[in-house]
Amino acid sequence: MANAPLSELRRVVVLGTGGTIAGRAASSGDNIGYTAGQVGVADLLGGIEAPEGVTLVAEQVAQVDSKDMSLDIWQKLAQRCVHWLAQPDVVGVVITHGTDTLEETAFFLHSVIASAKPVVLTCAMRPATALAPDGPQNVRDAIVVAATAGAHGVTVVCAGTVHSGVDIQKVHTYRLDAFASGDAGPIGYVEEGAVRRVRAWPEGAALEASKALDAVGQWPRVEIVMSHAGASGALVDALLQVGGAEPVRGLVLAATGNGTLHHALEAAALKAQDRGVAVLRATRCANGRILPRPDDRLRDAGALTPVKARIALMLELLGK
Ligand code: SIN
Question: Which are the contacts of 151, defined by CB distance < 8 A and separation ≥ 6?
Fold first, then answer.
C-alpha cells in the first residue's frame, strides 16, 4: 500500500465502544462470567486481514458494557462517524459494540447520520478470551461490508448475516446468531469475504442530524412504561409528578398486540397527553407493526419497538 497513489487509498475506520467482543474472562471455557469492554479495539484487529487495497484505522470511542450505553457516548460516536465519513479516502466505518443495546445504537445512528457511505456495527456473543470467540470473524465480515462498493446506510453484521440498523433486534440471550430482522428479513450474508445481498441497503437518515450531534446534556427525557395484565396508571402519574430539572417530556407505552393498552394505563396516558407530554404507543410484539385505527387517541410508532420508539421520540422532541 505504501506506493499506491493517493487517489487509490481506501481506509476503513474501526471505532471501539466495548461489549462482549472486547470482554475478558478468567478461563477460556467461560462464555458468560466475563467482564465486557476490556480489550482495546486496536487489539481486536490483531490477526484480521483487511480486504485487498484497504487500510484499517482503529479508534477507541468508549469502553463500556453496552447495558450502560449513554446518550453522551452515542453523541460522541455519531460525531466520530461524521468526521471519518467526511474523509475522502475513508470508504466506511465499522463499530464494535456490545450486543445488549446494539439495536438502539444502530437505530440512533441510522436516524442521525446522512452519508452515502456505510456504517457497520458488529459484536460478539462470546468474550475475546473464549476458546472459540465469534468476534474476529464478525469484525472481518463487518470490514468486508464497509469496504463493499455501493454499500450504504447503517447495518449490523453478526454471525455472517447483514441486518439493517432499522429492523435489527436481539432475539437470543446466548446463541451466536442472536439477531433477527423480523418481517423485513436480512439485507444479505457475508460469505468468504464477499457480500451476497438479498435486498436493498437501508436508506440514510431523513432527519436533520446537526441538532442531535450538538445536543450534549439537552436530551429530552422520554420514559418507557409497559402495559400488562393488571397494569395501572400509577407509574405514569408518578413520572408526571417527578419535579426537578428534568421533567418527563415524552412517554413510550409498550403496548400489547396491535397497540392496545390496559384501560387504566390508557386513562393515565391520555391525561399526560392533555398536559403536554408526547405519548407514543409501540407494540411489545417481536414482529409486525401497529395498524392504526380511526378512533386512536394516542399516536403509534408503527413497526418500531419500544426502545427504538423512545429514540425516535427523543429526536422528534429535540427538533422542536
Ligand atoms: C454488552 O452488551 O456489552 C454485553 C453483552 C454482549 O456484548 O453480548
Answer: 92, 117, 118, 120, 145, 195, 201
- pLDDT, tens digit, 9 for 90 and up, residues 62-97: 999 999 999 999 999 999 999 999 999 999 999 999
CATH code for the domain of 288: 3.40.50.40
82 and 151 co-located in one domain: yes
Residues 239 and 190 reside in one and the same domain: no
Residue bearing cell 397527553: 273
Instruction: Flag residues of the chain having pLDDT under 50.
Output: 1-3
Going by alpha carbons, the residue nearest to atom 2 of ligand 1 is 98
Q: What residues flank ligand 1, with Cβ below 6 Å?
A: 18-20, 36, 65-67, 98-100, 123, 125
Residue 210: the pLDDT is: 59
- Taking Cα atoms as reference points, which of 251, 235, 257, 262 lies closest to residue 309? 251
Q: Which amino acid is at 36?
A: A
- 45 and 141 in a single domain? The answer is yes
pLDDT at 3: 47
Residues 127-166 have pLDDT tens digits of: 999 999 999 999 999 999 999 999 999 999 999 999 999 9
Q: What single letter denotes the amino acid at residue 129?
A: T
Is 203 part of any domain?
no
- Are the C-beta atoms of 118 and 153 separated by less than 8 Å? yes
**Substitution site in 34, 66, 67, 176 for ligand 1 pocket (most atoms within 8 Å of beta carbon):** 66
Domain extent, residue 305, equals: 220-318
In whole angstroms, give the CA distance from residue 312 to residue 250.
Answer: 11
CA distances from 47 to 50, 58, 121, 234 (A): 9, 14, 19, 54
Per the listing, cell 396516558 goes with 269
Report phi then psi at 139, rounded to 5: -65, -45
CA 190 to centroid of ligand 1, rounded, Å: 22
pTM: 0.95
- Mutation test of ligand 1: which of 123, 168, 179 has the most ligand atoms closer than 8 Å to its C-beta? 123
